[in-house]
């Protein structure tokens, strides 16, 4: 068993996502940094699908009441077992009665914690992940609170594995998100597309505080619709990474909690850059870069090579 | 039908560009056809007013292969058995504390609350799509007299069970969530139960009628 001493800003149970029911509006609600989540599973010797804890914010701490192995991936953190510093992206051992604490997040936003035992959590439609809005899955469908006790089953020794430094992605800003054209890219004024992607004095957007697991709201120079272009579309299915532009012209990047949308789609964040979305925090600077589909595919095959190398560790 | 790529792991099939019973029927038929194939490489299908979005596993196939495969299998489409739509009766408490936008709808439409209720509950609606949040039915077509624009600034919190109007659609908030529809009433019917399949009360193509309490 583990006991949550401090849940930080937001911590919850996640996994690889809830799929197969998007036709009734059930969103994936998955771990937002999928590479980090997959690496965590690998470190602890589980197949992807194991429940893990996703945390936002520093000062997260928990106490364990049994000897076990543990690991952190995702955002770079300064973490300690009692007062001994431990390296992230590496399995470490914890003795019963010890406290694991994250003092500081030094790069990125969300980090992942896993154990050498399975977190006992509610499984809904094949997934342990928490749907916060609808309050199901994970730990009673809610974020962790101080004092929560979480059971672990099949606790074992997870060995000594670590992920090589060269396979830990950078999460340093300012961030460049590469996108391929969206369905309504043609609804925007040519000058707007140009200034967004090509030049210029200030192509930067700022991540606003109205950002959460549902979407990242950006603020910057408004994107202007072409004269006479429809500002809203007939609602239809959307996938993670879609960049929607409402009438205000301020873009919203859709994450993993929505299945249908009705705003103009200027682009799709490419798959290779999607994990970075987990690490955009309020006030971060972001800009877009338009790439061709072939380039997106090439970048994804590079990322696939990372996955392959990571999974061989 | 028009097929295009949708991001890197999606395929978008467009069946028309207007909201109509005819386009809806094509979407619905194709959606049930896709489901009947039980293809492992298709992770999710999202049918809505005019399109089906396919989310596929790009480790198992690529878009061109999948499209070719579907277009080949499509010949069987006319013979696909489509489940009969269910009909739902939704009891609604209209107006007052349950319908904070009833006043706006009345003044916008130039109708009395009783007339709004009569018109809204006098139509059998079709579920054109389910989503944005689990179990939320997008239903139409609303009587033109009840056409209202969405709120300019969406509410941060709309209560679970709220019955709303937006343009020529009506819908029910299956969960408390942010939302921009004009709320005219509330139902106690539970639209989504994560503990029991089928999780959603309504699916695409179902029919629903509102009954004033």
Commentary on this structure:
- Chain A contains three helices and 19 strands.
- Chain A has 313 residues and is mainly β.
- In chain A, strands 1, 2, 3, 4, 5, 6, 7, 8 and 10 form a nine-stranded antiparallel sheet that branches.
- Chain B folds into two domains: 2-79, 2-Layer Sandwich (Gyrase A, domain 2); 87-212, Cyclophilin-like (Cyclophilin).
- Chain B is built from four helices and 13 strands.
- Chain B has helices spanning 21-37, 63-73, 102-109, 113-121; strands at residues 2-6, 10-14, 42-47, 51-56, 87-94, 125-130, 137-140, 155-158, 162-166, 169-172, 177-179, 182-186, 207-212.
Please, how many domains of chain B? Answer: 2
Largest sheet properties of chain A: 9 strands, antiparallel
| SSE order of chain A, one letter for each helix or strand | EEHEEEEEEEEEEHEEEEEEEH
Please report the distance between the alpha carbons of the first and last residues of chain B: 43 Å
Number of continuous helical runs of chain B: 4
This entry's quaternary arrangement is heterodimer
The name of the CATH superfamily of the largest domain in chain B reads Cyclophilin-like
Report low-confidence residues of chain A grouped into runs of 5 or more: none
What average pLDDT do the residues of chain A reach?
94
The structural domain count of chain A equals 2
Uncertain parts of chain B: none
CATH architecture of the largest domain in chain B: Beta Barrel
Beta-strand content of chain A: 25-35%
Query: Which strand-content bin applies to the residues of chain B?
Result: 25-35%
Measured as a percent range, the helix fraction of chain A is: 10-25%
Number of helices of chain A: 3
Number of strands of chain A: 19
Most strands sheet of chain B? 7 strands, mixed, barrel
CATH topology name of the largest domain in chain B:
Cyclophilin
